Every structure is written in C-alpha cells, then in structure tokens.
Amino acid sequence: MSFARILRQPPRCLVSVTRRYASSAPAATGSDSTAVKKPASDSTTPLSSCLEGTKLEGVNFLKGQAPVLAMGDDQYPSWLWTALEPKVYTDDGPGSKAERVKRRAENKQKIKDRNFMSTQ
C-alpha cells in the first residue's frame, strides 16, 4: 500500500467525535450563566481529523509492528497538508505544460469512450 493511497483513505480514528451545537434558547442572564464561545480562528483550526495520540487502524501493515499513533499537526511536514490538492499549471501559450496535460487527458477519455463503445 503506497503512502499516497493511505492519504486518500478517510481516517480510521477510534475516538468518536461528536459535534455539539449551541442551543437555540437564549442564554440566561446572571452570574451562573455560561458565555457563548466564539468559533476558533482559522489559524488555530486543526489540520488533521484525528486527535494526537489516536490509534490509527490499518496503517501498520508489518507483522508484529507496534500500533501507529497520530502525532500533533506541528510534527508533520508542511507539504503533507497540500499533497492531495490538484496541480495547477500555468498556461504559457501553445505547447505549454498545461496544454499538454489537457490534451493527454482528452486523449485518454477518447480511448476510454472508444473501448466502451466496442464492448456494446
């Protein structure tokens, strides 16, 4: 199993995460009332979907290997969070990399369509 295939799979966390929503009732006034928390800013939002220390099932594929635990977001390399984003090629005119990639994808689709029609 390749590393990229593992990244494409949804995480298998053993910790169940439940979302808690604020009630629609207005907060009571007084000293014992709890203040409504503001949502966290984007900079503090965790990048991974598993909490630190979560046992990741299916990642250890060697026999007798210790269970793999999730690390903190800051311990992973920064390129990991952008690994699954599609590549963006700049269009520099005729013969550019973007044009070649587009032409190749179109040719692959034509071949798939032709092969499908030959089976019908």
UniProtKB/TrEMBL annotation:
Compartment(s) of residence: Mitochondrion
GO function term, MF aspect, one: structural constituent of ribosome
Cellular component aspect of the GO annotation: mitochondrial large ribosomal subunit
Predominant location: mitochondrion
InterPro entries: Ribosomal_mL54
Swiss-Prot/TrEMBL keywords: Mitochondrion, Ribonucleoprotein, Ribosomal protein, Transit peptide
Top-level taxon of the source organism: Eukaryota
Region spans: Disordered: 23-49, 89-120
Pfam families: Ribosomal_L37 (PF08561)
Basic and acidic residues bias: start-end ranges: 104-120
PANTHER family, per the entry: 39S RIBOSOMAL PROTEIN L54, MITOCHONDRIAL, LARGE RIBOSOMAL SUBUNIT PROTEIN ML54
Family named by the database record: Belongs to the mitochondrion-specific ribosomal protein mL54 family.
Protein's recorded name: Large ribosomal subunit protein mL54
Organism encoding this protein: Leucocoprinus leucothites
